[in-house]
Amino acid sequence: MSVILYAILLFFLYNFIVKVALPVYRTTRQIKKQFSQMKQQFQQPDSNPQPDPAPQTPPPGKEKSKLGEYIDFEEVK
Length: 77
Known about the structure:
By secondary structure, the chain is mostly helical. The protein has a domain at about 1-45. Helices cover about 55% and strands about 0% of the residues. It contains 1 helix and no strands. The model has no long low-confidence stretch (mean pLDDT about 80).
């Protein structure tokens, strides 16, 4: 009887370790690694900064009409 009880206890302990503890450990380790990488990226000086892209203007003749874009707001009580 006690052998069966120990076997069941070992089974549940194994399942807990494999399905709960190990994934939590791996996930926390991966998150810490990603945070440290992000921290390094923010601390590194940008040696070659990218220039801001020029604002794009629509081609001539395709300008949107500004008329009719305003929507009046009415509060409902």
